[in-house]
Amino acid sequence: MFGCHPFYKYGESCEYRCYNEGGYAMEVSGDRIRTCVKPGEWSGTDLVCECKEEEECCRPDIIFVLDYSGSVSDSDFQQVKDFVASLVDQFGDLEARVGVLRYNHGQMLEFHLNAYSNKPPTLLHINGMPITTTGGTLTGAALSYVANTMLLPGNGNRADAADVVIVLTDGFSGDSVTGPASVLHSMGVQTFAIGVGSCVSDAQLHDIANCDDHVYKLADFRGLENITAMVHDQICCDEPRRVCRYQGCFADKRERKFPHVKIEDREMTNALCCKHCHDKGFPYSATEFGKECHCGTTANFDDLDPPLPNTLCNMLCPGNQNEDCGAHWKMSVYSTIDDCPEDYERVTANGPCLRFSTDRQTYQQARDICQAEGARLVVIKSAVLDAAIDNRIQTTYAYETWIGLDDLTAPASQYVWSDGSVLGPGDYSDWSTGQPDTIYGEKCVEIRPWSPFNYRWNNHFGYILKNYICEIAVPPHCCPRPPAVGDDPGYACAEDHKYRPSPQIACRPVAEEIPAGGDGDVVG
């Protein structure tokens, strides 16, 4: 710990923080600031730290997207700030990077991921955010801003960190959230949707979140404090990132589906079991009956029956009461295997698996080759992925490269991605100046390195031989929701912890919430 100068006057204070050279440190208990009360006596208690090496830590890049529209009262937004500060405070100093965006009908950037390197100034900024809300609700535009600006490497997004976006809103979005959310999902971003009050849209919340377990619906803003620890545990459930990934809940039998190097521990956690199996050379681990750990091979995993509902693995881990360690003859299974096939790679930490060709093919031939591999020509819907692909091409073969975008189907001049989505006027694109042109009937899109294109998009003739990129989309990781203490108000919560939408409650029309002007166009 950093200490303070040994000489103080009454009433003077000093500040401590946890520090671990070459690793990370988390505040466990005690007081960061202590005041000299009288000789030999200080206020508060000693700051207790837990130090970990880098590979042991949960170190995500988290972006908070906060509804600042006029329907959120000043006192409600104060509770939003308290929730954000409380969640950030659960991470060790220097572990998580944090960015914050307020939005209404525009976007108001508070700070990027690289603005602060430790918690005190981060929390100071969060606590100092204004609370006088105004304007309407355009959540889709805010998500697009996150994907195309806040998640850029130049704004602090780390290549080796999990990307997490947490959206908190109290109303129906006046624009579509489906497309912008799908872009984040294609980037491998874990997205959480927290809806507060009766006027949020169940459908929009589920479109925003990358899985159902990442949706929370609360009756009012006071409920935020009850989900802070749950959201933290979901963000960190498979950390260290890309070392131990949750695979699902599976049935076991007396002959043991995972028959290798079983151990029992009264402090069992999924991370402990995963590390045990990994250290013994097994890529799969399974916790069962709370305290048991079993290890398995790839063949053992392939021999498992279809997965069960996650809620059936409902026995709490004795070493971490916020997560489940299987149940009676049911296994919570984790894996240390990277899920990109051979010859495929990631150019962003949690993005799709890509294969950059070493051969050159026509557009149609490249498309057929990718499809034969269970893949597709790459879909590029964000500046983050586009920049990473450009860098990969530039530092290796530096040649013209087909991507999965073409104008081969009617109507004319409508470009369609290989996933079937249409490139719309508000979507991300990186056309070179004057492109796409329609003079010569060029209908297939490439990334062209040469000047004046400089790795931007160009439409060209599909019969010309070029390199190409195949993509296998990998859905963002989804950690199961920890068992709830009570129902999320607004949902009917069955005994199996399945969340089902409650009946719709009439709300004000969307148009009444969106004024003609006001704050909100700060970022543009």
From TrEMBL:
Q: Which residues form the WSC domain?
A: 243-337
User: What Pfam family does this protein match (any one)?
Assistant: WSC
Q: Where is the Sushi domain?
A: 1-51
Q: Does the keyword RNA-binding apply?
A: no
Coiled-coil annotation: which residues?
A: none
- Keyword Signal listed? The answer is yes
Protein name from the UniProt record = Uncharacterized protein LOC109462749
Q: Which InterPro entries match?
A: C-type_lectin-like (IPR001304), C-type_lectin-like/link_sf (IPR016186), CTDL_fold (IPR016187), ECM_Assembly_Org (IPR050525), LisH (IPR006594), Sushi/SCR/CCP_sf (IPR035976), Sushi_SCR_CCP_dom (IPR000436), VWF_A (IPR002035)
The chain positions of domain C-type lectin read: 349-471
Domain VWFA per the UniProt entry, residue ranges: 61-235
Keywords associated with the record: Disulfide bond, Signal, Sushi
Gene designation: LOC109462749
Q: Please, which domain of life does this record's source organism belong to? A: Eukaryota
